[in-house]
Design a protein that fits this description.
The structure is a single chain. About 20% of the residues lie in helices and about 45% in strands. It is α+β, with helices and mostly antiparallel strands. The strands form 2 sheets. Strands 1, 5, 6, 7, 8, 9, 10, 11, 12, 13, 14, 15 and 16 form a 13-stranded mixed β-sheet that branches. Strand 6 and strand 7 (about 90-95) form a beta hairpin. The longest helix has 23 residues, at about 15-40.
Length: about 200
């Protein structure tokens, strides 16, 4: 302790004002970094150890902050999930896996609500769908894929409403391609599951 005080006094006596200023800034940045690292060390609890009221997570009647794991065997095709909670609310990514360890969903939350990128995966590990949530609404591009990775559906959202959509068959040919403006549909509609839709590959042939 005495040595630390001596070094501190020595630095203040023999350094210029500008050097002292820079030195103090450096020390403060180190202290802030250490504090941040300490604060970000989070515990991990099983869901059964927590109390959930109105989508808010409590540990011993206190708002919980940390990671949560859940052996979610009662969920369809889901065996395990892990997510982050800050002050009782979901924040960050919620991941769900099958019993074989295949990642099925990867959803991002802010303050208990979906916000940001949302993804799902087929059982073979290929991306199944992806879209973005902004202010509790789907926003921008939505993509859905066949299990082999080929694009099946492409939608464009504006504040949760579809304003454009394309549907493709397994060979990549367009089954539907339309836009919605002022309540009117422009283009041609169809469905990859509708047998009476004429694909562009048959029109071209």
């Amino acid at each position: 302790m005495f040595i630390n005080v001596f070094i501190y006094v020595f630095v203040l006596l023999f350094m210029s004002d500008r050097m002292v200023f820079y030195w103090l800034c450096f020390m403060l940045s180190l202290l802030s970094a250490c504090k941040y690292q300490t604060a970000t060390i989070m515990t991990e609890k099983s869901l059964k150890d927590l109390t959930v009221i109105d989508s808010t997570y409590y540990l011993a009647q206190n708002l919980y902050t940390g990671y949560v794991t859940n052996a979610a065997s009662e969920l369809r095709l889901i065996d395990k999930e892990r997510f982050q909670v800050i002050e009782g609310k979901l924040n960050g990514y919620c991941l769900q896996w099958t019993k074989d360890g295949v990642l099925r969903t990867e959803n991002h939350y802010v303050a208990g609500r979906k916000e940001g990128p949302q993804k799902g995966y087929h059982l073979n590990g290929q991306l199944s769908y992806s879209y973005n949530v902004s202010q509790n609404h789907r926003q921008g591009k939505y993509y859905e894929y066949f299990p082999d990775g080929i694009l099946q559906i492409e939608k464009t959202y504006e504040k949760g409403q579809v304003i454009a959509e394309k549907i493709f068959d397994i060979d990549g040919y367009t089954l539907a391609n339309f836009k919605i403006k002022d309540g009117r549909i422009y283009g041609f509609r169809g469905s990859s599951n509708c047998i009476n839709v004429i694909s562009e590959k048959y029109i071209n042939n």
